[in-house]
């Protein structure tokens, strides 16, 4: 299915947000996720189903002051 991740179209086989994170190589990284404009906490990623055309944001925290 085609989804948009951080404004880039991706063809993926993942069916959940957790599987997408692994498929894109973010597995184990400390990241924040949102789908279709709503924040998705870590415990809900494996229960959050992806749909064709989903808009996903993956953000890594930045250090600084």
TrEMBL record:
It comes from the Bacteria. Signal peptide: none annotated. This is Thiamine biosynthesis protein ThiS. It comes from Acetobacter tropicalis NBRC 101654.
């Amino acid at each position: 299915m085609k989804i948009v991740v951080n404004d880039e179209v991706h063809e993926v086989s993942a069916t959940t947000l957790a599987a997408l994170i692994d498929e894109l190589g973010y597995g184990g990284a400390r990241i924040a996720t949102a789908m279709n404009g709503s924040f998705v906490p870590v415990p809900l990623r494996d229960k959050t189903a992806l749909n064709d055309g989903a808009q996903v944001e993956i953000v890594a925290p930045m250090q600084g002051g």
